[in-house]
Write a structure and sequence with these properties.
Helix content: 40-55%
CATH topology: Rossmann fold
Number of domains: 1
CATH superfamily: Alpha/Beta hydrolase fold, catalytic domain
Largest sheet: 9 strands, mixed
Shape: globular
Number of strands: 9
Length: 391
């Protein structure tokens, strides 16, 4: 009788294991199938009311050789005769987020969403991390710029950087002002080490004030200074902490996993392999391939003036690249025309968070349909005085 019960339990155990394995296998197949269906890799065309492709528009994903390395990009615009804008991403190329957060920049520009060498569409395991230097990325930026100028027959284009892309963009604009109509810095970097210190102090204070002792203790164990440098354990906690307080990618985004990772899997304009490479590149580069340069540089001392108009867009809730430091830099920066725009509802990505305000600025200010009344302006909330920033 005892042996009967033992065999009965074994049979039940085996049955349960088989059921669990079946559920896992079926779920995996369904997930893979869903991802496959959502990964055609074909760029979406702009369409007219009839449903046909919009005449004169452009929507393509291409790879070209830039300084000996094949690099990928999306080129999008509703009218291919519009001015060209080259977008420089930060640590992670996130064209994929335009499906979730349409900014409609393509209404006003032909936008080149270039994935820099070693990232996203331009990832290759053959690219050594040590070869991705500031000088190389600046040279690549210049070559992509010239490709766009030649292809679209435009003497100058617009240059927009976001986050880590502003570290590259403002230096590219300073080196080759003859190539650009204007430089647009979205979440502009300045002294990034100081920005990280300010973010750390703010987050620690907020978690303590909110009674979140778990996160406060975690942060306390990652404290750093100029002499110790920024530890990896802080960088590993940084995204969770920032998004938990609404000072990360967007003011509303609370999870990198659901807000960024899952969104990257949903976008149908990437193949499965390209989605995989997006995160292989991120895993290889860490925060950014040029992170060591960034935290060792105060851009306010490196680029003190530009020969072209400069525009800063910054979310007031941004602590990834500190708002106050960007505003201080703007006030010191010399340029023939300069304007600073504060986005009241935004953190690190105002073009995704407040797209209508950004479109208004692009159309009426930067593209010059309405000329600015003065050469230097500090605009809060776009066109009205905001008042003091919450501390």
């Amino acid at each position: 009788m005892k042996q009967f019960y033992i065999h009965s339990y074994i049979r039940k155990g085996v049955l349960i294991i088989m059921i669990l394995l079946s559920v896992i296998i079926i779920s995996s197949l369904l997930l893979t199938g869903t991802l496959w269906l959502r990964s055609s890799g074909k760029p979406k065309p702009f369409t007219a009311k009839s449903g046909n492709p919009l005449p004169g528009s452009i929507s393509e994903k291409i790879h070209i050789t830039i300084n000996g390395v094949e690099q990928g990009m999306f080129i999008k615009g509703k009218d291919r005769t519009k001015p060209v804008l080259l977008f420089l991403h930060g640590g992670l190329p996130f064209y994929f987020l335009t499906e979730r957060y349409p900014s409609n920049v393509e209404d006003y520009f032909v936008v080149c969403w270039w994935d820099q060498r070693g990232s996203g569409l331009s990832f290759s395991p053959k690219i050594g991390k040590e070869t991705i230097t500031l000088e190389q990325i600046l040279a690549d930026t210049r070559e992509v710029t010239n490709y766009l100028r030649n292809r679209f027959g435009q003497q100058k284009i617009y240059l927009m950087g976001h986050s880590g892309g502003t570290f590259i963009g403002i230096q590219a604009a300073a080196q080759n002002p003859e190539l650009y109509h204007a430089y647009i810095g979205v979440s502009q970097m300045t002294d990034q080490f100081l920005s990280e210190q300010l973010a750390y102090e703010y987050m620690l204070g907020e978690f303590r004030k909110n009674g979140d002792s778990r996160m406060a203790k975690k942060l306390e164990r990652t404290s750093f200074s100029k002499s110790t440098g920024i530890p990896d354990k802080y960088l590993a906690l940084r995204d969770e902490a920032m998004h938990g307080l609404g000072i990360g990618t967007t003011h509303e985004m609370r999870s990198v996993f659901s807000g960024i990772f899952l969104e990257s899997l949903k976008n149908p304009e990437y193949t499965l392999g390209e989605k995989f490479n997006l995160w292989r590149g991120k895993a290889t580069s860490g925060v950014h391939p040029l992170w060591k340069n960034m935290i060792a540089t105060d851009l306010a001392k490196v680029v003190t003036s530009l020969k072209i108009p400069v525009y800063f867009f910054h979310g007031i809730h941004d602590y990834t690249t500190n708002y106050d430091l960007a505003k201080d830099y703007f006030e010191k920066l010399q340029a023939p025309v300069k304007r600073f725009y504060t986005f009241e509802q935004s953190a690190h990505s105002p073009f995704f968070e407040e797209p209508e305000k950004m479109q208004l600025i692009l159309e009426t200010e930067i593209l010059g349909e309405i000329q600015p009344h003065s050469k230097t302006a500090l605009l809060f909330g776009g066109f009205s005085n905001l008042g003091n920033r919450p501390i």
